[in-house]
Amino acid sequence: MAENIAVGIIGAGRIGQVHAKSIAYEIPGVEIKTVADPFLTEEIADLMTSLGAKRVTRDYKEIINDPEIEAVFICSSTDTHSPLSQEACLAGKHVFCEKPVDLDIEKIKETLAVVKKSGVKYQVGFNRRFDHNFASVKAAIDAGKIGDVHVLKITSRDPAPPPVEYVKVSGGIFYDMIVHDFDMARFLTGSEVVEVYAAASVRVDENIGKAGDYDTAVVTLKFENGAIAVIDGSRKAVYGYDQRVEAFGSKGSVAIGNDTLSTAVISNEDGVTSEKPKYFFLERYMGAFTEEKVQFFDAIKNGSDIPVGGFDGLISVVIAEAAKRSAAENRPVKISEITDIDGGWK
Amino acid sequence: MAENIAVGIIGAGRIGQVHAKSIAYEIPGVEIKTVADPFLTEEIADLMTSLGAKRVTRDYKEIINDPEIEAVFICSSTDTHSPLSQEACLAGKHVFCEKPVDLDIEKIKETLAVVKKSGVKYQVGFNRRFDHNFASVKAAIDAGKIGDVHVLKITSRDPAPPPVEYVKVSGGIFYDMIVHDFDMARFLTGSEVVEVYAAASVRVDENIGKAGDYDTAVVTLKFENGAIAVIDGSRKAVYGYDQRVEAFGSKGSVAIGNDTLSTAVISNEDGVTSEKPKYFFLERYMGAFTEEKVQFFDAIKNGSDIPVGGFDGLISVVIAEAAKRSAAENRPVKISEITDIDGGWK
Amino acid sequence: MAENIAVGIIGAGRIGQVHAKSIAYEIPGVEIKTVADPFLTEEIADLMTSLGAKRVTRDYKEIINDPEIEAVFICSSTDTHSPLSQEACLAGKHVFCEKPVDLDIEKIKETLAVVKKSGVKYQVGFNRRFDHNFASVKAAIDAGKIGDVHVLKITSRDPAPPPVEYVKVSGGIFYDMIVHDFDMARFLTGSEVVEVYAAASVRVDENIGKAGDYDTAVVTLKFENGAIAVIDGSRKAVYGYDQRVEAFGSKGSVAIGNDTLSTAVISNEDGVTSEKPKYFFLERYMGAFTEEKVQFFDAIKNGSDIPVGGFDGLISVVIAEAAKRSAAENRPVKISEITDIDGGWK
Amino acid sequence: MAENIAVGIIGAGRIGQVHAKSIAYEIPGVEIKTVADPFLTEEIADLMTSLGAKRVTRDYKEIINDPEIEAVFICSSTDTHSPLSQEACLAGKHVFCEKPVDLDIEKIKETLAVVKKSGVKYQVGFNRRFDHNFASVKAAIDAGKIGDVHVLKITSRDPAPPPVEYVKVSGGIFYDMIVHDFDMARFLTGSEVVEVYAAASVRVDENIGKAGDYDTAVVTLKFENGAIAVIDGSRKAVYGYDQRVEAFGSKGSVAIGNDTLSTAVISNEDGVTSEKPKYFFLERYMGAFTEEKVQFFDAIKNGSDIPVGGFDGLISVVIAEAAKRSAAENRPVKISEITDIDGGWK
């Protein structure tokens, strides 16, 4: 029987806990060796221990310097993703880095250069690609069921806006929210974006506007292969987390709806009522959080390609920057205006 | 008992026949006095007679000059809409004019000036406003069920492209097809468009491209009230006539699907299959074609306002022109760049 | 051009008016010559005249004795169906008789004997066979899409119970309501019922129980071809007129839902709400009322078979009687216990 | 921190493995101490060890006699359920027993008497009560959303028939399959069955008929509270595992559909196709298998009532026997004909 893969997790906040739980409960052959978090609490330490962590510390160096640890999950704050990624790679660890790799495009490129040199597996946490619904759209397209994709429509609505403080440091709606949809659009069309037009507004909370961000946006993407994608995003859908896509092509269309807690439909004098979409991203995407790691560990074990890598992390941020500029200047912005993405980053 | 309203129909092609049939079968208190068509065939004459037409002629002047005729339906080719509208108005007839009033914005304004002076009722044939599904979206919005509209999404796909010869004279996809959706977006948001951005491509038939038109388009509209609309249009959906809308607002969303010939769902080894959308616009919109006329004749009888008038005809063509220019120049185009719409046309 | 078929309508109540309207508006080549009703009011007379009736009278003999009238619609009270059917047949008229032909099985047989001898077309008003949804189930079965039918499930719920006075003379829930479903079950299975088991109760209105009837019933039917059908009926579904069927067979299933006034779906904090079923049978079955007559007049013109005839009228009442007896005696009742149906009635 | 509850599992076949996996992966605070199976293979032993079992043996006595083991799962063949239940209870263990407790009603009563005397928790594995969909129907009924239940409809179709050898020993379709639906009907109506009528046939596989069983059945249940339930069951639905329920009452209805692997809908020339129901009971009910144990262990820890107990195990078999007799004798059979259930078994 093969040895378990020993894992270190840097950052024990919400997303770090998600990864720890699915490793503990869902993924055989992997064990959590060490969890590091500078703001470690007793409660978190207890949780991580109950999930099998052998060591809990405030010092991430205990992970980087541990020769038994093969893979590192970077779940700390965004500004640490790049430097930690580089340290881990240079220490020969495989890295699973939460998105975004960085808000600064040049730093991402720097990190990708280190990844390339070190030869480790480097996966970026675009979990939605692994969601059963989105994956079924990809499968239908790849199977030729809708022919060539002409138009792709993505709906991306959060149930409630984040705190304004978060918006101020996150890079804004294109960086912290719609970046997932940029990745999804590339994934589903199988092509690269050449130009972005974003119409954005403040309709949900004027404080978001005062912080220099938008809460409502409609983004049009033109792709190399001729496909056009349109993403509508909102910080607040009162009925829950609304994540849908429809791909329309030469031979038909494929569309997904939201998952619900049950299929129950109640008919009474008021109408015919079914359940709202699952409210929270963890409810909706729990399976996806597991599946992305299953494929990450498979790639480590079998030497196969990882499913979503550094270039995907880079280009999604480049598109976000183009969208931000487009909204600010009210004009279509070419990807090539933002940065050179042809420099071998793929 | 009130006298029947006597109607004249100019143009006995497909849409003229639609109006004749629904007057004959569905609308009490109205009778077809005369039908005029320069290309009249015996077959059409027989049909119109069986629908109750008392006279069938090649000469539309027999309608204009008949003092008994109160209302005229203009169903002839687009280039005749303006002059016939003006003649009929000057003769004191109420006019129901098929869309578009004209491809030339100045001519529409000219016609609207004549309408205004003559004081007749002048309705433009934007039938979709009267469709039970679209009307239910309007009713939900007006009842405050989704709060303020933030984003409006319209899907508009024809089952098959028109002949290239038609495309050459129709003004193109924005004028002959998406113009309906421009009107719908104004109707549902209850606001006026200020700016248009159109991403368009040729994916269905390259001959459409050679004729200078597009067959696929995604159009973003910004409205005075802050709403953003996005319309995706295609000349060809292999599964049928796909006409949907989703309005998303501060308190929720309302969406409509397509009508089908039955609610049957078949489950077998291949999956769970329901019916395609009704294939043809006459199947889908027959009820709407009747309802628009019911309201037209009500306005005549009761002196009430007509539901969709000359300004609606004008502004939809202005938006189409803005979309065409936007696609050609790849930039957002302001409505105010196209023409002055504040000159009392409303 | 062929002469119009002249029609007489006996009985100008709700169902008589339905037939008059659809003849007037929807069916070319047919005209209403005379309408007879012993309780004729001025209002009804005006209505019928506006629908084209040339003569309105209290005396049905004016129809029977009019040699110009080819077809008679019998829309009077149930107890007159048999004698009027016989009179009309003997006068050589084709007959469209509302259901049931009679509450007395022997009288139905007597009538069928007259029909047979006179050689006219005799159609019974089982309109649901012509509903677009039910017809699509029949089409799927006939096309072999679900293989052999193993189980058929019919849901039949009225929006509100009829007056108790009606229940007292109608023959009860099996005769006045579920009789439609007995016919539907025969139509869809393409087989004859051999045995009936009915579980029935009073849950909606105890006055219905005091009148000797039930308001809730579940009826199991065994068919010659081995199919089993189960019908659940209720006098009152607060959400509207609920008429569905599901056929399950060796190769799959086909199911229909209800029609709604629109496809609108509203998502908000309370859930995801769509429209209730159409509330009233005229809303739901208007198309079916037209289609049944289209086929009736086609049979007259072309000499083809009528789609639903005297035997269907007979057997459905026999099944109703078996169901009534089953509920009363709490045991399965064979059709052969009720009457001999093999005596050449088909 | 509380001590873990130590569990023994008797029977390591399919259902034993299901319980072991969900204890290992999904339920904190519980550990598998010993697994016993007389037909233990190395493969199964390895699996159970990887799931945390400390000991794997062929001798179930090692579980019964282990004072550290608090709870025993009985997952062995049906004929051993009663004696093992009794042994475990007498040894003071809490028991989770797979259904049915026994095919012999007297033996079930004997076991229940032992359970009662020993004072342990005794849960029977009617997992469907814990399924998110069925549970949502129960919640809607309990919340009064549909008022009093008038009619309950349950659809229960397996994707494929079991081997005929299984049918010969299982007690037949009412004992091995529809027994779940009998329990569900009691659970949802909150009332006890008084009478059963079963119409059954052989349509799927004539070998099932030769073995003395049926593969298709429609069962009507009358309840103490006046509700009528109807269950349609089939051994073979080619499109997958079809498990639905609709409850209809004085204030409306609640219905559930099946779960699918994704919400994807493909529209093309052939129609609009969505996914089939999940094919296999483990796919559909995995969450329910976990939830039933969560509640079982909660009852042990907190001394609360178990959610489904010995009486539920008894009465469901009594109903199955009544259904079997009803089908054989073609008459409604009263529960009181089968056995006395009022003898304090509840």
UniProtKB/TrEMBL annotation, chains A, B, C, D:
EC number: 1.1.1.18
Residues annotated as domain Gfo/Idh/MocA-like oxidoreductase N-terminal: 6-126
InterPro entries xrefs: Gfo/Idh/MocA-like_OxRdtase_N, GFO_IDH_MocA-like_dom, Myo_inos_IolG, NAD(P)-bd_dom_sf
Gene3D superfamilies noted in UniProt: Dihydrodipicolinate Reductase, domain 2, NAD(P)-binding Rossmann-like Domain
Domain named GFO/IDH/MocA-like oxidoreductase: residues: 134-254
Single GO molecular function: inositol 2-dehydrogenase (NAD+) activity
Annotated family: Belongs to the Gfo/Idh/MocA family.
Keyword Oxidoreductase: yes
Native organism: Candidatus Thalassospirochaeta sargassi
SUPFAM superfamilies reported for this sequence: Glyceraldehyde-3-phosphate dehydrogenase-like, C-terminal domain (SSF55347), NAD(P)-binding Rossmann-fold domains (SSF51735)
Protein name: Inositol 2-dehydrogenase
UniProt key word Oxidoreductase: yes
Key words, A-Z: Oxidoreductase
